[in-house]
């Protein structure tokens, strides 16, 4: 049985929850490992705009509406997943919710990433957005793992 509305990934990161949370909730650090240039800090209730810096995806721009920030435990934002067509106005579409939950673990921090709300997207882009973000989060886990490995 597959779930088309929700992506969930888990990883143990060899860093304390405070260090992981900082990498997630500080827009400068987030931009470094996520490979995006962001135009401001993450503040609950505010939006930040960004441009992907990963080679081949530099045309992607996005908005992150910061939903909730709970220090060292939880960080969440809403966005329009896989905004791949620069000519399209995604602002009228529903946003998905991206949640990062942190739990202390013997080896460091258990990070759970959940992105949900794909079933609300227009049928014409739902499958591709889900597929691209599912693969994208797999890559981002590698990126944050590598980022946190550097002192």
Report on this model:
The structure is a single chain. The chain has 151 residues and is α+β, with helices and mostly antiparallel strands. The chain has a single domain, classed as START domain (Alpha-D-Glucose-1,6-Bisphosphate, Chain A, domain 4). The chain has helices spanning 17-25, 27-34, 123-149, and strands spanning 6-13, 36-38, 47-52, 61-70, 74-79, 96-105, 108-116. Strands 1-7-6-5-4-3-2 form a 7-stranded antiparallel β-sheet, with helices on one face. The radius of gyration is 15 Å and the shape is globular. The N and C termini lie far apart (41 Å).
Q: Give the biggest beta sheet.
A: 7 strands, antiparallel
Secondary-structure arrangement, i.e. CATH architecture: 2-Layer Sandwich
What percent strand? 25-35%
How many domains make up the coordinates?
1
SS content category: alpha+beta
Strand tally:
7
Query: Quick one: overall form?
Result: globular
Would you state the CATH class? Alpha Beta
Sheet with the most strands: spatial strand order:
1-7-6-5-4-3-2
Name the CATH superfamily assignment: START domain
Q: Considering DSSP H and I runs of 4 or more, what fraction of the residues is helical?
A: 25-40%
Assembly annotation: single chain
Order of helices and strands: EHHEEEEEEH
Named CATH topology: Alpha-D-Glucose-1,6-Bisphosphate, Chain A, domain 4
Q: DSSP helix count? A: 3
* Distance, first to last CA: 41 Å
Q: Mean pLDDT across all residues, rounded?
A: 96
Rounded Rg: 15 Å
**Which regions contain 5 or more consecutive residues with pLDDT less than 50?**
none
């Amino acid at each position: 049985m597959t779930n088309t509305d929700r992506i969930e990934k888990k990883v143990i990161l060899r860093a304390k929850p405070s260090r992981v949370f900082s990498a997630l909730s500080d827009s400068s650090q987030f931009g470094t490992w996520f490979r995006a240039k962001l135009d401001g800090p993450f503040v609950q209730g505010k939006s930040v705009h960004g441009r992907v810096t990963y080679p081949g995806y530099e045309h992607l721009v996005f908005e992150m509406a910061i939903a909730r920030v709970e220090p060292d435990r939880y960080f969440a934002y809403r966005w329009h997943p896989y905004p791949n067509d620069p000519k399209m106005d995604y602002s009228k579409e529903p946003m998905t919710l991206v949640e990062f939950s942190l739990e202390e673990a013997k080896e460091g921090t258990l990070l759970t990433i959940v992105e949900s709300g794909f079933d609300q997207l227009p049928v014409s882009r739902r499958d591709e957005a889900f597929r691209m973000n599912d693969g994208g989060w797999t890559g981002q886990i590698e990126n944050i793992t590598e980022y946190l490995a550097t002192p």
